[in-house]
Amino acid sequence: MLALENVTKVYRTGALGLRKLIAVSEVSFEIGEREIVALIGESGSGKTTIGKMILRLFRPTSGVIRFEGKDIFSLRGPALKDYYRQVQGVFQDPFASYNPIFKADRVFALIREEFYPRIRRSAWEQRVEEALRAVGLNPSDVLGKYPHQLSGGQLQRFLIARALLLDIRLLVADEIISMLDASTRIDVLNLLGDLRERGLSILFITHDLSLGYYISDRSIVLYRGRVVEMGATERIYARPLHPYTEMLMESIPRIDGRWGATSHRVERSAVLSGAFGCVYYPRCPIAQEICARRAPELTEVEAGHFVACHVRAGASSSAG
Amino acid sequence: MALRVENLRIYYRTLRGYVHAVEGATFSVGDGEIMGLAGESGCGKTTLGHSLIYLKPPMAYIEGHVFLDGRELPIWDMDRMNEFRFRHISIIPQYAMNALNPTRRIGPLIADLLATRGIDFRQILPELQRRLDLVQLSPEVLNRYPFELSGGMRQRVVMVISTLLNPSLLIADEITSALDVSTQRAVCEMIVEFRNRGFVRSTIFITHDMSILYQIADTILVMYAGQLAEKAPVEAIFRSPRHPYTRMLIASLPRVGARQRVERLKGIPGSPPPLLDPPPGCRFRDRCPLAFERCQEPPPFVEVEPGHFVACWREI
Amino acid sequence: MGSRSELLYFAWRNTKVRVGVLILALFVILAIVGPLFARHDPNAYVGPPAHPPSREYWLGTTTFGQDVYSQFVHGLRATFIVGLLGGGIGTLLGVCIGLLAGYRGGMVDEILNMFTNIVLILPTLAVLIIIAAYLTVRGILVESLFIGCTAWPWAARAIRAQTFSLRAREFVDLARMSGRSSWKIMFYEIAPNMLSYLFMTFILQFGGAVLIAATLDFIGLGPTQGISLGLMMNNAVLWAALPLGMWWWLIPPGAAITAIVGALYVMNVGLDEVFNPKLREL
């Protein structure tokens, strides 16, 4: 359904725009029907940039994003509106997504104005109520209120309901539960799973691996703008191949065991990694000489499980 | 006992009246103890932490006593608290890493701070360098501006600064929430290391992330809507929680190994009561599956087992 | 208490706002009601020349025997009109250009920026002299138009900066994902969030317009007919009012302009505290 092909996003920074900040580098992956794909990365990994490019809020510097085969940045006018009828997003900060001077319902009114201008009022109200119930909200509790009168969890569900009003096929969920309380997180997460059963696909962007494990079918691990590992969630968690993924798995605070020893290092000084070579080289405990010279490609090590690492890909393929 | 808090009541003064942010908190933190202060947003944990060191309007001190190493802290008096701040009690506030003066290099920043306490920067420099090395920062960091460092590095710098004078009590307010998983782990391990080396005697680690507390805390104090719910050693909180809120909270934490299609976790429906005019009695009773008539009366925070305190009529 | 009434409550509690509003209100009332009590036409020669304030002539007379009180209250009216019109035009231009430049960015921003810079460095006095040379008859409208068209650059800059920061907010992204057109987003999403800022911009433009008009009148480039506070001051100085001891001719208009503009600026500072909850004292 959705395919990214070698998408790159480069920002120009510095006084005369001479310095380059590579936010996303040659990222390619696909999202199919009825699946939840977790896009995992920490800050600086480019995950939010990818999400916003898919939502057509930023333009890639190079590469193509295709929806049903068509380049989404070539869409104009009615075709563009059609895209938004099928692809929508929900962001991290529930309060920032609402214009603070208007009531929360206004986000529904915007949808109605732009996509259903001729619908009758009663039909619309019914649609709204169905969408609210589908996300577990009681219409009488949440309609007619200002954003600051609702809780973070309610606001996030409200935004999901807004997306449902359009019968979307793909939802980009960018860290949507990180600002919610622990007791509401799991409910919103369960809601995403239910939506998958209804036929929706979700790109679940997060830095929290335990959430990714709970809900996603496939996972894509990003580091500094590059895909380092990709595959079925259960495989990645059972057998992480890339050293970065291993480090992430080691570092999650778990409640069934304490942290063990680690061989991974944190950043010591303010030096960024070089332009060539593997992007994880400065911190990698198994780095070899080739890693500094050439960036590794994504190679399929077992069915559907890809990794971008000279050492791991080489070892696995020679062993298997 | 390093810290003893008795019946502390802190409200916020607003146009519409008092917001009952902390209602009668009584607990103690021992020497060398890392106590996790956990709860959801709005439970009062940040208010409690801040009131111990920097009680400024709109926070209002209503009643209560705080004793540190046997001496009473005059938390209601901002000026008198000055002699305690940074020396005996120190805080790493949330988002501290973003509050460093962007126009000063780190070294001069620290020198200024120390000068206000009458300490010569050059004398303390060797110790400072040792500590920077301990948190895996190279000493050249002192010559850098804050924006040249990453978030994780800035957070570590702030940690070193806050503990430089070996305070008896360190309050760490959500110091890991804006960090990456790898730095999070490093920062947490540093908190433990500081305690192990004696740089800090007792620590109050405020966070909403229970799983981090499992890794580093000795005891956990759970708060709900301004009231203390439960305090116990960390294993007890996770393996045998006694307060219904704690139980439901632990049950809703996703662990690696739990998948939704296999085992569906449950959250806690509803939301905390408004603290402007809070309902009488236990504030969790509207969401509690075990609530009964006695809950209209506020349950006392009592020790039901050695070191295990609960505020619930069902457990007393 | 809703957020709007909360704003009003804070606005009224704030001493600066209260003082500013009261002073302004005083002069507005004077401007509206005062001329009803003026018995003489402002520019007519009606009384004994250079007469100090008396029961007949409340603020005395000028060197030519004109009623100073009548000039004063009619002048107040003119001043307020110029302030409203000139300030209004300036605000409107600044807002539109600032919003457009800030929201669109890129080439549009570059062009508008260049335009703003050009207008900013225009020597307004020189241009005005040239215009004055061409237009032998100038009214208040022309003066207001001129002031408005030259005073907007700083407002455009400030609003552009605000728009930049608002544009990156997520509710704007949401509006874009709802298929809203750029114009709708600018005026229905971004501008309403800057209402406090826009309000304060208008206040500053108003005050600025009054000052500029007074200056223009003072140097004789104001309206060719009618009377204004600046013109009064112009004439008073021209005819050596102060050395001759005719304080009633020079002081009232000067004090009035100072008071009005001062009240506006003080109100502006106070409003900043009202709109920004962090600056409030409880």
Task: Summarize the structure in words.
The complex is a heterotrimer of chains A (320), B (316) and C (282). Chain A has 320 residues and is an alpha/beta fold. Helix content of chain A is 35%, strand content 23%. Chain A has helices at 47-54, 77-86, 106-115, 121-134, 139-142, 152-164, 182-197, 209-215, 233-238, 243-251, 289-293, 310-319, and strands at 2-13, 19-31, 36-40, 62-67, 70-71, 87-90, 170-174, 201-206, 218-223, 226-232, 299-302, 305-307. In chain A, a hairpin with a 5-residue loop joins strand 1 (2-13) and strand 2 (19-31). The longest helix of chain A has 16 residues, at 182-197. With 316 residues, chain B is an alpha/beta fold. Chain B is built from 8 helices and 12 strands. The interface between B and C is small, with 6 and 4 residues.
Keywords:
heterotrimer, A: alpha/beta, eight-stranded mixed beta sheet, 12 helices, B: 316 residues, alpha/beta, four-stranded antiparallel beta sheet, 12 strands, 26% helix
Could you give a quick summary of the protein structure above?
Chain B has 8 helices and 12 strands. With 316 residues, chain B is α/β, with parallel strands linked by helices. The model of chain C has no long low-confidence stretch (mean pLDDT 83).
